Amino acid sequence: MIVRRFFKFIFIIGFLFISGCNRQDDDAVYLTDSQSQRILMFSSIPWDYRNLTKAKGGKCNIERIKTTESGDWIIEGWVIPSDNAKKLAHTLLLGLNVNGKESFGIPRRKYRADVAEYFHNNNLLISGFEAQFKKRSLPENACIEIYQIIDQELIQCPNNLLVNFKAEQICS
Q1: Which tens digits make up the pLDDT trace of 134-152?
Q2: Do 68 and 60 touch, CB atoms closer than 8 A?
Q3: What is the DSSP letter of 91?
Q4: How many CB atoms lie within 10 A of CB 102?
Q5: Cα separations (Å) of 2 from 7, 13, 96?
Q6: What kind of architecture, by CATH, is found in domain 23-171?
Q7: Element housing 117 (H / E)
Q8: What is the rounded CA–CA span in Å between residue 91 and residue 81?
Q9: Which DSSP symbol is given to 73?
Q10: What is the residue-averaged pLDDT of the chain?
Q11: Who wins on pLDDT, 67 or 14?
Q12: Strands (E), the chain
């Protein structure tokens, strides 16, 4: 029994190490209807996506960065492959680049009828996203990057956002 638990523990530690996982409990959370839940932030692109072809493309918009009563930051926006897309990305990744140190998380998807209506495309109904971060993990001058996983491609949106709490700016 003890040996079995030991091997399970070793397996979990090994899996986290191999996947590039860098768990930072206080850094990122996403909201659910019932409670806030913390998500894992990866120190590099998660293992499953590292060998995908990389490209820039799609359309995305970070619409707002707002604060909660507890001082957390919530990032909201939408992302689509194209105006006339037949399907949405399999997975979204939200990247944070803080002074050259990158971390990645998977934001919560949101229903966005307004985006589908604007582009006259009902395939875009779940094109929204939301992610919540502790204030200290989203410092001034952090660059927010949005990635889509579509048909074995890692597609980075062309417009990243520089976190400047006085005004929104594009970062390179």
Answers
A1: 777 777 777 888 999 988 8
A2: no
A3: E
A4: 15
A5: 9, 17, 40
A6: Sandwich (2.60)
A7: helix 113-118
A8: 12
A9: E
A10: 75
A11: 67
A12: 28-31, 36-38, 53-56, 59-67, 73-80, 91-98, 101-105, 108-110, 128-133, 143-150, 153-156, 160-162, 169-171
Nearest to 89 by CA among 52, 142, 64, 118: 52
Q: How far apart are CA 169 and CA 103, in angstroms?
A: 20
> What is the sign of the dihedral through the CA atoms of 37, 106, 21 and 141?
negative
The label of the residue with tokens 């590099």 reads 44
DSSP SS3 for 40: coil
Distance CA 68, CA 86 (A): 35
* Contact between residue 130 and residue 107 where contact means Cβ atoms under 8 Å apart: yes
Tell me the two tokens of residue 43: 């120190």
With residue 65 as reference, give the H or E element that holds it: strand 59-67
Name the most confidently modeled range: 18-32, 70-84, 106-120, 135-149.
106-120
Tokens describing residue 141: 């001058």
pLDDT, one tens digit per residue, over 89-138 is 988 888 888 888 888 888 889 999 999 999 999 999 999 999 887 777 77
Q: Which two tokens stand for residue 56?
A: 């820039």
Structural domain boundaries of the chain?
23-171
Residue 23 CB neighbour total at 10 angstroms? 12
